[in-house]
Automatic annotation (TrEMBL):
Protein name: Transcriptional regulator
DNA-binding region(s), chain positions: 154-251
Record has Chloroplast as a keyword: no
Listed InterPro entries: CheY-like_superfamily (IPR011006), OmpR/PhoB-type_DNA-bd (IPR001867), Sig_transdc_resp-reg_C-effctor (IPR016032), Sig_transdc_resp-reg_receiver (IPR001789), WalR-like (IPR039420), WH-like_DNA-bd_sf (IPR036388)
Record domain OmpR/PhoB-type: where: 154-251
Keywords: DNA-binding, Phosphoprotein, Transcription, Transcription regulation, Two-component regulatory system
Organism: Malaciobacter canalis
Length: 255
C-alpha cells in the first residue's frame, strides 16, 4: 500500500502542467473519460473525431508554440480514424506521446500502431488501475526527458546551431566535435561566456589571459591577435568588438 501512495504522490508531480488532447467519438465514453482526465491534468482538450482532433492539435501548437504533451485517441472514428490521425500527428511531431484507446474487437489494428511506433495502449471500457498505470509511465517518461533537457541546458551553452560550449568538460564543440584551442583562446571564451552576451572590458580580459605571466606580451595588440586567430579558427563563433570598450560573444542562429 505504501508503494501505491508513493506512486500517487509522484503521479501528481509528473502530471503538473501536462497538456492532453483526447479524441473520441462515443459520447458516453468521451464524457466519462474527460471527467477522469480533468481530475489528473490541468489542460484537457477534447475532440469528437480525427479531423477535429488534428485541427485542435495544430491550433494548440499555433497558440502555445509547443505540442500537446500527450494525445489519447480512439481508433474507429468518422472523417479521420485513429490510425490516420496518428500518422498525421507523427508527420507534425515524430516525438509525440500517443496513447491508443481500443475496443476488444479492434485488436487487429494494434499491430499497425505498433509498426508506426505506438507503445501505449488502453482497452475500452477503461480499467482504472490500468489507466493510472499507463498515465504514470508516460508522464514519468515526459518528466525524465524534461529533467535531462534542463540539465543539458545548465551544463551546456548552445551558441548557435553549430557550436556548443560545454561548461563541464570546458570544451567548444562544433557539431559535437571538440575544437582544439590554445590556453589563451580557451580562457577568452570561458570569460566571455561567464555572463551571456555581456561585454567584458579589454583590461579585464588582459588581466585574466595574462595572469601570472609577467612578459610584456600582455597588451591590446596581442589580445587582438588572439581574437583574430580565434575568428579564423571558428568563424561560426560571433565575437563582437564593442568599440572602445571590449569584447562579447553573441548567440545567434544561422538560417
Amino acid at each position: 500500500m505504501g508503494g501505491l501512495m508513493i506512486d500517487y504522490v509522484l503521479l501528481e508531480e509528473y502530471c503538473q502542467n501536462i497538456s492532453i488532447l483526447f479524441v473520441e467519438d462515443d459520447e458516453s465514453i468521451k464524457k466519462e473519460t474527460t471527467e477522469l482526465l480533468k481530475e489528473i491534468f490541468t489542460c484537457v482538450d477534447v475532440a469528437s473525431d480525427g479531423e477535429e482532433g488534428l485541427s485542435k492539435y495544430k491550433e494548440y501548437l499555433n497558440i502555445n508554440q509547443k505540442h500537446y504533451d500527450i494525445v489519447l485517441s480512439d481508433i474507429k472514428m468518422p472523417k479521420i480514424d485513429g490510425l490516420e490521425l496518428t500518422k498525421l500527428i507523427y508527420e507534425e511531431n515524430p516525438d509525440q506521446k500517443i496513447i491508443v484507446l481500443s475496443a476488444h474487437s479492434e485488436t487487429k489494428y494494434l499491430l499497425e500502431f505498433v509498426n508506426i511506433g505506438i507503445s501505449y495502449f488502453l482497452v475500452k471500457p477503461l480499467d482504472y488501475d490500468e489507466f493510472i498505470n499507463v498515465i504514470f509511465n508516460i508522464t514519468k517518461d515526459i518528466h525524465d526527458q524534461n529533467e535531462l533537457r534542463n540539465n543539458f541546458k545548465a551544463e551546456k551553452i548552445v551558441l548557435n546551431n553549430i557550436l556548443i560550449w560545454d561548461k563541464q568538460t570546458k570544451q567548444l564543440l562544433r557539431n559535437n566535435q571538440a575544437i582544439k584551442l590554445t590556453k589563451k583562446e580557451f580562457l577568452l571564451i570561458e570569460l566571455l561566456l561567464k555572463t551571456i552576451e555581456k561585454t567584458h572590458p579589454v583590461q579585464e580580459i588582459i588581466a585574466i589571459l595574462w595572469e601570472g605571466d609577467y612578459e610584456s606580451s600582455a597588451d591590446i595588440t596581442n589580445l587582438k591577435n588572439i581574437v583574430s586567430r580565434l575568428r579564423k579558427k571558428v568563424p561560426e563563433l560571433d565575437i563582437e568588438n564593442v568599440y572602445g570598450f571590449g569584447y562579447k560573444i553573441n548567440i545567434r542562429y544561422f538560417e
